Amino acid sequence: MIALTIAPEYGYVVLTAVGTCFLGTWHGIRCSSFRKAAGLGYPTPYADSAQLSAASAEDKHKLYLFNCAQRAHGNFLENHYMALTTLLIGGLHYPLLSSAFGLIWSLGRIVYAVGYTSQTKENGKGRLAGAFFWLAQLGLFVNAGLTGYSMAF
Fold this sequence. Notes:
Helices cover about 75% and strands about 0% of the residues. The chain is mostly helical.
């Protein structure tokens, strides 16, 4: 049997975790503003090729930016559960390190989303500026694995 003592620093982990949830809300609000600018109603998830080909050059760009914002949000959702889970697990043994990785991950997600909708980068290449979130996510995975290892052995 393992007795689990949670360090007071785990509070930083909880605050970081809650922050990632607010980040998800930020993504949703951001997508809504791009959706409104593109003139796309719900439940349309993306502007399709027919909508893009029928649009004027200005409207086509708005539809494209909406698609980029929506994809950045989707990528956030695809990765959030893994980052959140490993943040909370890793924080049991290494709370400050876990929280630091979580903060870097969150910052990377913001840079990724803003870059994805950059007016100056084509094909969503601006997102690459935020790709450092992958390193933080790897850190979270390793940190959680080390926590499990230290509890098991």
